[in-house]
Amino acid sequence: MGTKSKLEYIWLDGYKPTQSLRSKTKVVEDFSGKLADCPVWSFDGSSTEQAPGGSSDLLLKPVALFPDPARKNGWLVMTEVLNPNGTPHPTNGRATINDPDDDFWSWRKLMYGLAGALKPDEIQAIAAQLYVEMLEAGYTAVAEFHYLHHQPDGRPYDDLAELSERVIAAAREAGIGITHLPVLYLAGGFGGKPPAEGQRRFLNAPERFLRLVEAVRDRYRGNAEVAVGVAPHSLRAVPPAALAAMLEAVPATMPVHIHIAEQTGEVEQCLAWSGQRPVAWLLDHAPVDRRWCLVHATHVTANEVRDAATRGAVAGLCPTTEANLGDGFFPAEDWRAADGAFGLGSDSHISVSGIEELRWLEYGRRLVARRRNRLTGTDGVRDLYLAALAGGAQACGRPIGRIARGARADLVVLDGDAATLVEVPPERLLDALVFAGNANPVKHAMVGGRWQVRDGRHHARDAIRDRYRAAVATVRSRL
User: Fold this and answer.
1) Is-above-0.85 flag for pTM?
2) For the chain, which terminus, N or C, has the lower number of CB atoms within 10 Å?
3) What value does the mean pLDDT take over residues 343-347?
4) Which residues are catalytic?
C-alpha cells in the first residue's frame, strides 16, 4: 500500500447573514502535493444551506493548497463551490471578484474575430510568411492544426478544401514539410453545447469533414512534402459519437492531434459533464496510441501521465504559447520519468523559435521546483533535444529528426561564427545553442534535400514578406 494523505477540503457555506467555514476530509494514496492532483469533490449542499434536499449535489473546486501544520501527511485544500454543471454557486463570492486579467478565454474571443475576417489569399500570404520565419529559425516541418474551412458566414466554398489548399500552397512555396491536420469542430462545449457565432468557419458535419480529409489525401497522395492527418479539436468540441465515427473512418496510421486539458476550466467542465478528467476520459474511450498527439495536456494527474505515456502518445508542448495564455506548467519531469514522448511547437506563434521553446520547457520546471537542471543531466541538454526531435517527427508522421538510411534529408547548419557558439566544444554545442543568448544562430536549412535557407535568409523572403505586408494592411483596413 502507498502512503496515505489527508486532504482537508475547506469552503464557505450558505448561512446568512454570515457564512461559516466548513470542511471534510478526503483520504488519498500517494498524493503528489500538487494542486493539479486535488480532484473536484462533491458534497451535500442541503446540510450547508446551499441546496434544497431534493437536488443537493454540489462541487468543491480546489483553488489553493497548503501543508497542514497539525497533521502528518495532511494538506489544507481551499476550495470554491460550484453547481453540478461547473458554474459558480450563488454563495461563491470568489467568482464575483472583478478580475481584469485576461486569460485563455478572452484571448480566444479576439482570435475568433480576426479569423472571421480573413480571405483565402490573405490566409495564404500570412501562412507563407510564418513558414519562412519557421525555416529561418530552424524548423523543417510543421504540423498545421487547421481550423478554417468555410467562408466568413459559414457557407462552404465551392471547393470544400479551398482553405486547406491555400495553407498547403503556402507551405510548398516556402519549402517547409507539412503535416496538414484538418480540424473537426462540432460543438461549443461539453455535452454538445451549440457552437458560438465566431466558430462557424470551423464547423463540419462528420460526413462532410471526412469528404474534406479524403479530398486532401487524394490530391497529395505520394507527395513526400505533404502528409495528412486529422485533428478532432477537443472533447468539448467533438461529442463522443462523432469522435468514434471519425476514428473508425480514417486510416489507422493517420496522425491524430487533439487539444486536451490545456485549461483548468476545461478540466472542471469535463468533470461536470462526464465525472472524469479529459485525459482519463480519452484514454478510456479512444484507441490512443503512438499516432496520437495530446496537445498541451497541461493539467494532468500522475495516473494520466503514466497511462498516456505507456500508450505511446506524444505530448505536444508549446511553452511560449502556454506561458502567454497563462495555461500553467506541464509536468515534464514526471512525463520523462514515464518514458513519455514529447514534441515542441510554436502554436499561436507568439514566438517562432524551437530554441526558445526548449529553453522554456526546462526553465518552467526550474521555476516550479526552484532548482536547476530539472530535465537536463550530465550530458547537458543533448538527450532532451534529441527526444524533442524524435517526438516531433512521431507527431508529424514524417521520417525526420535523425540522420539515417531512409530518413529525409532535413538538415540545419549552425553559424560557427555566432558569438554564443565560438570556441564551444562539440559536446557542449547544444547547451550553448539552447541556453546562451537570443540571436538566431541558424545559417542554412535544408528540407528534403533542397536548401531553403542560405546564410540566414530564405530564398523567397522578400517576395513573401511583401505579399504578407499587403495582406495585413488590407485586413487591418476591414477591422
Assistant:
1) no
2) N
3) 95
4) 296, 347
